[in-house]
Design brief:
CATH class: Alpha Beta
Strand order of the largest sheet: 5-4-3-10-11-14-12-13
Structural class: alpha/beta
CATH topology: Rossmann fold
Strand content: 25-35%
Length: about 270
């Protein structure tokens, strides 16, 4: 493992990023990022299929909570479709870009917070990747080389339980893309989960095992109120008695999905 204490932008020039106009909005990006930034620069979009999927699940009078919004490639366009969107970003650099992109796009109903969603308040060590800044994450339990391949900076960031930060607020849809912190975030927001109708969360076996050190049963333990699960990559639905079996099969086979969808209502839409 290698780690650097060097800043991830040049303090002498105060370089933040470059601004690009895309169909999803105006975005200030760090061109060194080879995933989200390069997708926006070269193709003019990022996560278009995720945006389209979420748009089918929301209405203009609803609210979204997004944990791990990165620079706002999804949060900016989705904020235009709902009453309000709250975004919580742990990476201090992408939070800065998110702040800029909120202003660039006039997203007055987009609230942003800088914190790692966690099971308790405090601070955690955080790995700030550059080549894939969207892969930045809490310090993994197992320090595999794949998580440190681009000589990342290691920083400490504030961690907050979302029930404390957002108190008695209600979000119709909660979206999480937080690279192995999903279980810890869910443990810190039982109230928010109890009031939500839909939860979308990344499911990556190596993040569960190597970053968080948790099992599928652990992962599902905060989600007892949800009745239906849809797995987009497999075009598979299952009801709550089968959640653990289906996800364990995926876990054992190393099959991940960028956004599995839990529903409270078994009758929610024909989907997929």
């Amino acid at each position: 493992m290698r780690a650097s204490v060097q800043p991830i932008y040049d303090p002498h020039t105060n370089f933040v990023g470059s601004i690009f106009s895309t169909p999803q909005g105006l975005f200030c990006v760090d061109p060194r990022d080879q995933f989200v930034a390069q997708s926006l620069i070269q193709r003019g979009s990022f996560g278009a299929h995720e945006i389209a999927r979420i748009e089918k699940l929301i209405s203009p009078d609803q609210s979204i909570l997004m944990l791990g919004p990165h620079l706002g490639a999804l949060a900016v366009p989705l904020s235009k479709k709902v009453r309000n969107l709250v975004a919580v970003e742990a990476n201090p650099y992408t939070y800065r870009l998110l702040s800029i992109n909120r202003v660039l796009n006039g997203c007055n109903n987009l609230e942003i917070f800088h914190a790692a969603a966690n099971d308790k308040d405090g601070e955690i060590e955080f790995v700030v990747n550059v080549v894939n800044s969207g892969g930045s994450k809490r310090m993994p339990l197992h320090k595999d080389g794949a998580y440190f391949h681009d000589n990342p900076q290691i920083v400490k960031v504030p961690s907050l339980a979302m029930d404390g930060l957002l108190k008695d607020r209600t979000f119709d849809l909660i979206f999480m893309d937080i690279e192995g912190s999903e279980y810890f975030a869910m443990k810190g927001m039982p109230g928010l989960l109890s009031r939500a109708k839909i939860l979308i969360t990344e499911f990556l076996p190596h993040h569960l095992a190597r970053v968080g050190g948790i099992t599928v049963r652990d992962f599902l333990s905060p989600l007892k109120d949800f009745e239906l699960l849809y797995i987009p990559s497999l075009t598979t639905k299952c009801e709550s008695p089968d959640f653990e079996r289906v996800l364990t099969e995926m876990f054992v086979r190393g099959i991940g999905d960028e956004g599995i969808i839990f529903f409270k209502d078994k009758n929610l839409p024909k989907f997929g």
